[in-house]
Design goal:
The protein is an alpha+beta fold. The protein is built from 15 helices and 14 strands. The strands form three sheets. A seven-stranded antiparallel sheet has the order 9-8-7-6-14-13-10. It has a five-stranded antiparallel sheet with strand order 4-3-2-1-5. Strands 11-12 form a two-stranded antiparallel ribbon. A hairpin with a 2-residue loop joins strand 7 and strand 8. The longest helix is centred in the N-terminal third of the chain and has 47 residues, at 148-194.
Length: 574
């Protein structure tokens, strides 16, 4: 029988725990409105359990558990899409058994499909490690037959203990998260503001975003959490109402996540100069922070907001329907899942505008406003024949974005080159399906046709697709475009102007670099000195975990069919 392992204390940077030597949890410092900690200092945190506050402690602890025969499970935070046979692909929420964690970036694990490497930063270790024998239906049957009473009692105690584990994990990760935010605000931002010769106000706003607002919000959130925490009997704690009370406040993370790619870019530019590298390292040492670079600390809020739904989902799993907190936990889980989804959608938009900017740069003879001035997402693309009332036809490649439809013409010799031919304002037109046969208004025989009719003028545009299914896709895409615009308006989904300008600037630089033969993405270094326990794999993947490459905490999504069309046409190449 494989013993159950409670692994709540073995966590990532964002969620390191403070566990007392007797197995209980120390009461953490409540942070007052001025941001000062009343009870715990950094030294006390280290003295309480120094091992897990040190870099590499997590990997060491996990490997010790694995070598002792314990089974360690992790839960995927984000999708990991890969075509590499050496890497383990999975979706958010999948459970992975961790088989080796000797490398800080890549762990070796197993899911239902296979064993392979996966990025450690894409997973969250489960608080309650499931006992494999519990999944055996035969053992459950024996318990029911041999002694239903004792079995139920043990199950109830076990449920209470598991809920206690999750409650303590939520509380402890929140306390340490506050410590990280305090270190950023007091250890980095305060020192940077003293050195006006090194940093402008705009640079600091770009690098740190609204993290001070997040720190202030999280202090109050932790204060309210502590009031709901039952120290004597943690499983009786009622945390759900606290999440519901503050659910609107978590929206401030959206601005931070949107700003994060620009922050990483600005920071990486500064780090090219040795004086900035030395300055930030001096800040870290002065604040007595753990051995993590500034960009690692700046990633913690992005990771944190995505972990709340997973923590609440696990808490809900071990909360009985009779528990007084059940309904609030269930509502809090849905609320935080919606917050995370909204933030992820905003981040997806930011990824999209970078591709759109690269696409525009590749178009020859572009005229007028930049595509990003009004659009942030590609809805559909493909070839259509545009007809005139005189019966003339024009073969064009069309790209449907939110708010506008762009028309391009392929080069006669180089079919991967596109020339700009114009655009249409989708806000001012209505889509009309046209039946096969002779069109009365145009006096033309048409097949697979539809019209875009202006709402303000007499202008009408007639298009024909090659196949009926192509026409159906275009009609659906036009409906999707209108719905997307409406949803963006309702959700307040608007990309900041500075992000649009940054995307265009980066695309233009990348275009110039390619013309000079530069490589836009340096190859990742191969980790040295790694000796895997499993002989089936020789080296860790040669790619860096993607959030380190693209400065985001989640991997790039699998390209849709729309983007696949672009790859055939040459633009939007990575």
């Amino acid at each position: 029988m494989v013993a159950r392992v409670e692994i709540a204390r073995f966590w990532s940077l964002e969620s390191l725990h403070v566990v007392s030597s007797d197995g209980g949890t120390e009461s953490s410092a409540l942070v007052d409105d001025n941001g000062s900690e009343e009870d715990f200092s950094y030294e006390e945190l280290c003295q309480t359990n120094p091992r897990y506050l040190q870099p590499g402690g997590e990997q060491l602890a996990i490997n010790e558990l694995i070598s002792d025969g314990s089974v360690v499970f992790a839960e995927a935070l984000w999708d990991h899409v890969t075509m590499d046979d050496q890497e383990l692909g999975f979706k958010a929420g999948d459970v992975i058994q961790v088989l080796e964690a000797s490398n800080k970036d890549w762990w070796w694990g197993r899911n239902e499909d296979k064993e392979a490497w996966f990025p450690a930063s894409f997973v969250r270790l489960r608080v309650n490690q499931e006992e494999l024998s519990e999944n055996s239906s035969s053992s459950h049957g024996e318990e029911r037959e041999d002694g239903a009473g004792p079995s139920c009692h043990r199950h109830s105690e076990n449920k209470h203990q598991m809920r206690t584990n999750v409650i303590q994990e939520i509380m402890n990760t929140e306390r340490v998260y506050i410590k990280h935010l305090q270190d950023i605000c007091e250890g980095y931002i305060r020192q940077c503001r003293k050195h006006t010769g090194m940093f402008t106000v705009a640079q600091l706003a770009t690098i740190f975003g609204n993290i001070e607002d997040i720190y202030k919000f999280q202090r109050q959130f932790l204060k309210d959490l502590e009031k709901k925490y039952n120290k004597e009997e943690p499983h009786l704690s009622e945390l759900g109402s606290c999440f519901l009370q503050h659910q609107e406040g978590f929206a401030i993370y959206s601005e931070y996540c949107n700003n994060h790619p620009g922050a990483c870019l600005e920071l990486s530019n500064l780090m090219k100069q040795s004086k900035y590298r030395h300055f930030f390292e001096a800040c870290r040492l002065l604040q007595q922070m753990i051995d993590i670079a500034l960009d690692g600390f700046l990633l913690t809020p992005v990771q944190k907001i995505c972990k709340y739904p997973l923590q609440l989902a696990e808490l809900l799993k071990y909360t009985t329907q009779e528990h007084s907190d059940y309904n609030n936990i269930k509502a809090a889980y849905e609320a935080m899942k919606n917050v995370a989804c909204l933030i992820n959608e905003r981040k997806r938009k930011l990824e999209s505008i970078n591709k759109i900017a690269q696409w525009q740069v590749s178009i020859i003879g572009w005229e007028g406003l930049n595509i990003l001035d009004r659009s942030s997402e590609l809805i559909h693309s493909g070839e259509l024949t545009r007809l005139t009332k005189q019966g003339k036809s024009q073969q064009r490649t069309f790209f449907l974005f939110d708010h506008q439809l762009v028309s391009c013409k392929k080069d006669l010799l180089r079919r991967d080159m596109l020339y700009y031919k114009g655009r249409m304002d989708m806000d001012q037109v209505e889509t009309v399906d046209v039946e096969d046969g002779r069109d009365k208004d145009w006096n033309l025989h048409v097949r697979n046709a539809f019209k875009l009719v202006s709402r303000t003028t007499d202008e009408v545009h007639l298009f024909c697709a090659r196949k009926q299914e192509d026409k159906a896709r275009w009609l659906q895409a036009c409906a999707d475009e209108r719905r997307q615009v409406q949803e963006d308006r309702e959700m307040g989904m608007e990309i900041p102007e500075n992000q649009k300008k940054l995307a265009m600037l980066n695309a233009q630089k990348a275009g110039q670099g390619k013309s000079k033969g530069y490589n836009s993405c340096p190859a990742a270094p191969l980790p040295q000195g790694l000796h895997p326990l499993h002989q089936r794999h020789v080296t860790v993947p040669t790619s860096i975990p993607q959030q380190q490459v693209f400065a985001l905490a989640e991997p790039k999504r699998k390209p849709s069919l729309f983007w696949h069309t672009f790859h055939k046409l040459a633009p939007f190449r990575k």
